[in-house]
Specification:
Blueprint: H1 8-22, H2 27-45, H3 58-73, H4 87-97, H5 99-102
Helix pairs in contact: 1-2, 1-3, 2-4
């Protein structure tokens, strides 16, 4: 079994790979985007189905596992992707996959 690092630096490195992937136009990109959006704001942006891990390449699944492991071991309370320095990138993911959620409210 492969050991997946779950420290802060590993989680950030995983996100630098996951975010560009989420900006693609594939089933894998959709699954990664759903994971990121569920972490960001599950009630409004949808959920991440755990079975979606089966449709990911092993390296991508390991990156998600690294992020989840980091979140589970964090003793500083809730940590969101913007707190790790990816707020602008996350807005881009939301604009691509949930354009109605990113539109300004009138």
């Amino acid at each position: 079994m492969t050991s997946v690092p779950t420290d802060y630096d590993s989680a950030r490195a995983a996100l630098t790979r996951l975010i560009p992937l989420a900006m693609g136009d594939t089933g894998q990109a959709r699954r990664v985007a759903n994971f990121l959006m569920a972490w960001w704001n599950d009630p409004e942006l949808g959920q991440f189905e755990i079975a979606d891990m089966f449709g990911l390449d092993i390296d991508v699944a390991n990156d998600i596992t690294s992020v989840i492991g980091f979140l589970g071991q964090n003793d500083r309370g809730a940590v969101y992707i913007d707190g790790l320095g990816f707020a602008e990138e996350m807005q881009d993911v939301i604009a691509l996959w949930r354009p109605s959620a990113s539109a300004p409210q009138t």
